[in-house]
Specification:
The chain has 479 residues and is of the alpha/beta class. The protein folds into two domains: 261 residues, Aldehyde Dehydrogenase, Chain A, domain 1 (3-Layer(aba) Sandwich); 187 residues, Aldehyde Dehydrogenase, Chain A, domain 2 (3-Layer(aba) Sandwich). Helix content is 38%, strand content 21%. It contains 14 helices and 20 strands. The strands form five sheets. The chain has a seven-stranded mixed β-sheet, sandwiched between helices. Strands 9-8-7-10-11-19 form a six-stranded mixed β-sheet, sandwiched between helices. Helix 2 packs antiparallel against helix 4, helix 3 crosses helix 4 and helix 4 packs parallel to helix 5. The protein starts with 9 loop residues before the first strand and ends with a strand.
């Protein structure tokens, strides 16, 4: 095992614990075992539920100002430890070290914004007749069962922990077994910052076993999940049987509409750089490009050239621009989608084949002129794959962008105010970004429509999902 990788443990009721069973943590750059993630037993989960219930009693009665102080203290510790955290993330996930550092910063920003905004979750007094007051309170919902994915080991757990803890909730978070270090470092920082026992509990294990055990428990008042649409639907079904609300941030297949009033080379280079981010393993990654015919070939050429020049390698190498995919399953998925597209007539303009036979390396892959029945056009690749097709008009582009059941993020390039308005109004997505491929920042709400989920993370809208609304009617005399 690599000495720089943390000795992972569960965190329950303010204490660290080992377990009898564990799973290996694999470095995707060389397929070596770098650590062991503990597997929680049902007894561990029962302890976490009891601890979270007690933690909620304490934390929900703690003033927002004091909550904010502890959150900011923990965040300061994470910023101090940024290199250690980023190094762990690069080892377990593979992303370049510089990108891992940026992810730590992004996670800290979620905590900082929520800590401040939670002090402004105002209620209101509703005007009424003399002698009576109607007062609306926002109160923390209770214990949250949260499930975060492997693609962003630090920032994904941060979003859920920040929203829950800032709102006054307690949380049991099951972080990803493939990339557990980010959540472990978060728990460590909160422990060192003096967070009351039971407010934050961290568990790992077999995902289906943990979700099916935790979600039906009466202590759990909210389920927060980021992951695939199929799993999200399954967890929603479990929660619905117990009338437990859910916050679901699910899959996407982000369209990008490129209008012919922009520089195709500049748009292509920007797109290729973002496509390589996190090796394309991002639910908001720009994937389905619909380019107006006038600039289509120039866009494809520039995109392919930039893709071919992207340096793929070990994330600890300073020259690396894109690391490996997370696991062998992603390699197999990419190979299958490329083979299907090629067989159906698509042009492979860059990449398309695994790099080497050790480590899960796959280049930025550019496919052009795909038919509608190519699997990649309706199955999210979740890898460094760009699909580029020509369109004759903006109306055609919007129609194709909306053709799938997904609606998480969408993008457009245009310098026309009229086009920008049509994109913003016409695209069915929770987030539409124009002339930028940034889908969200801490201050803005993020989430999807259609089968990309419901509910929002980030912004004041994100905090509201961790709170309930209570109306108090107070008459001054009995009547």
């Amino acid at each position: 095992m690599t000495k720089h990788y943390p000795d992972l443990m569960l965190y329950i009721g303010g204490s660290w614990r080992k377990t009898a069973d564990s799973l290996p943590v694999i470095n995707p750059a060389d397929e070596s075992v770098i650590g062991a993630v503990p597997v929680a037993s049902r007894s561990d989960l029962d302890d976490a539920l009891a601890a979270a219930e007690q933690g909620f009693r304490v934390w929900s009665r703690t003033s927002p100002a004091v909550r904010s102080e502890i959150i900011l203290k923990a965040t300061a510790l994470m910023r101090e430890r940024i290199d250690d955290i980023a190094h762990s993330i690069t080892l377990e996930h593979g992303k370049p070290f510089a990108q891992a550092r940026l992810e730590v910063v992004r996670g800290c920003e979620f905590f900082e914004w929520d800590a401040a905004e939670a002090q402004r979750t105002y209620g209101r007094v509703i005007p009424s007749e003399p002698g009576i007051r109607y007062i609306v309170h926002h109160q923390p919902i209770g214990t949250v069962a949260a499930f975060s994915p492997w693609n962003f080991p630090m920032s994904q757990p941060s979003r859920k922990i920040a929203g829950a803890v800032a709102s006054g909730c307690s949380i049991i978070i099951k972080a990803a077994e493939e990339t557990p270090a980010g959540a472990f470092h978060i728990a460590r920082a909160f422990h060192d910052a003096g967070l009351p026992a039971g407010v934050l509990n961290l568990v790992f294990g077999v995902p289906a076993d943990i979700s099916s055990y935790l979600i039906p428990k009466p202590q759990v008042r909210l389920v927060a999940f980021t992951g695939s649409t199929a799993v999200g639907k399954h967890l929603t079904e479990i929660a619905a049987r117990h009338m437990t609300p859910v916050l679901m941030e699910l899959g996407g297949h982000a369209p990008v509409i490129v209008c012919d009033d922009v520089d195709p080379v500049a748009a292509a280079i920007t797109s290729a750089v973002r496509k390589a981010r996190n090796a394309g393993q991002v639910c908001t990654s720009p994937t389905r490009f619909f380019v107006q015919e006038k600039i289509y070939e120039d866009f494809v050429k520039a995109f392919a050239e930039k893709a071919r020049s992207t340096v793929v390698g070990n994330g600890l190498d300073a020259a690396t621009q894109m690391g490996p995919l997370a696991n062998h399953r992603r390699i197999e998925a990419m190979e299958a989608l490329v083979a299907d597209a090629r067989a159906k007539g698509a042009r492979v303009m860059a990449g398309g084949e695994r790099l080497g036979n050790r480590g899960y390396f796959f280049p930025v892959t550019v496919l052009a002129d795909l038919p509608g029945d190519a699997r990649a056009m309706y199955e999210e690749p979740f890898g460094p794959m760009a699909l580029i097709n020509p369109v004759s008009s903006l109306d055609e582009a919007i129609e194709k962008a909306n053709a799938l059941p997904f609606g998480l993020a969408a993008y457009g390039f245009t310098h026309s105010a009229a086009n920008a308005d049509r994109l913003a109004e016409g695209i069915e997505a929770g987030t539409v970004s124009i002339n930028t491929l940034e889908a969200s920042v801490p201050a803005t709400p993020f989430g999807g429509v259609k089968e990309s989920g419901y509910g929002r993370e980030g912004g004041i809208e994100g905090l509201t999902h961790y709170m309930t609304v209570k109306n108090v009617s107070h008459r001054m005399s009995i009547a």
